[in-house]
Amino acid sequence: MKKIVLFTLFVAVMSVSGCSSGSNDTEILVDNTTDATTYTNTIKSIIDSNCLNCHTNPPTNGAPMSLTTYDDVKNAVQSRGLISRIELSAGTAGVMPPSGSTLSTANIQAIKDWQLDGFPQ
Length: 121
Prior knowledge:
5 helices
């Protein structure tokens, strides 16, 4: 009988010590940074490709402001109606850019997502 109790106690101790070993071998780390909509990862390239023909520093072709920096673009979204100016509504193109291709729905959504996420850099 003593042998059964000792064996059971041994198994219980080994089970507990195995769980508290502190090993991180089975920890799975998820890296979502590549999918994040940030100014650097996403927004800058959209602006560079579609807006810098006029919104340079200094602005040209009658553009009222520069969109060359994070702060410029963030301010344009917050205070100058950038999203409504580029957004497609009722099947008609937004007023920006005034010539050439309009921004894709995916690019407009990326700028909206960036705003909703709090303008991560």
